[in-house]
Write a structure and sequence with these properties.
The chain is an alpha+beta fold and 234 residues long. It is built from 4 helices and 15 strands. Helices cover 17% and strands 30% of the residues. Bound molecules: 2-oxoglutaric acid. The site of 2-oxoglutaric acid has 11 residues, from strand 8, strand 14 and strand 15.
Length: 234
């Protein structure tokens, strides 16, 4: 039986207390910030432990079906359940169960992410993500170019990667094609996209097997977490 008491456990509090991150931040497009090596191995391992609890239910991890095609990526959600193309509290396209709550530690982590990505303190502290799509990619999984546009809020998306590295294609807000930049997202990397890039098309063209660092907690494959603000009221 799931319990949510670990939202405030000492381990979560200690792991995610603010500390400086020396990662060499860069901005591949206006409003899109990549901070390599943002999460420590301890933090990654702890999050992987949470991931295994999330996938146990009440809503199991599943591959969504988009326009009749099953995605190769499998997803479990927190806060709000994403299904093409809407957010619901209950996973009506899976088993009808209520989705797990959005954990407080993740709100704090999202705020820290914006600060470290260079957002002004007031904006970072006001960040209130209320959903996370937690994706698992095996070596063959991909994600086609798409926009994150089912949210009614223009707040930035905070993306975290753990496990095998991938090629992340980050494009423009007009179409799926060029101009885009291909960059490598590695275990522990942070990527934030907001402002002019909030609706940029993006996707995963490749997962690179056997590239996960020892100690990240994931033996194979890649986990990606995107925190978002739905802008929805209950
Ligand atoms: O896996 C990633 O890094 C991107 C995930 C993504 O684009 C999404 O969940 O919409």
């Amino acid at each position: 039986m799931w319990d949510n008491t670990d939202n405030e456990t000492p381990s979560a509090m200690t792991l995610f207390t603010p500390e400086p991150h020396p990662g060499d931040r860069h901005e591949p497009a206006a409003g899109a910030i990549h901070v390599p090596g943002w999460l420590t191995l301890d933090q990654q391992r702890w999050i992987v432990g949470q991931f295994h609890r999330w996938t146990d239910g009440p809503v199991p991890i599943r591959a969504a079906t988009v326009r009749g095609h099953q995605m190769s990526v499998r997803t479990v959600c927190l806060g709000w359940h994403w299904q093409p193309y809407k957010y619901t509290r209950a996973a009506t396209d899976v088993n009808g169960a209520q989705v797990l709550p959005f954990p407080d530690w993740m709100v704090r982590l999202g705020r820290r992410a914006l600060l470290d990505a260079g957002y002004p303190e007031a904006e970072a502290n006001a960040y209130l993500p209320d959903t996370a799509l937690v994706n698992y990619y095996d070596a063959d999984a991909r994600m086609g170019m798409h926009q994150d546009k089912d949210e009614r809020s223009s707040a930035p998306v905070v993306s975290l990667s753990i496990g095998d590295s991938c090629t992340f294609r980050f494009g423009n807000a007009t179409n799926r094609g060029k101009p885009y930049t291909d960059l490598r997202l590695r275990s522990g990397d942070l990527f934030v996209f907001g402002g002019e890039s909030r609706l940029a098309y993006h996707g995963i063209t490749r997962v690179h097997p056997d590239t996960a660092p020892d100690g990240c907690g994931l033996a194979a494959g890649r986990i990606n977490i995107t925190m978002r603000t739905t802008g929805l009221a209950d």
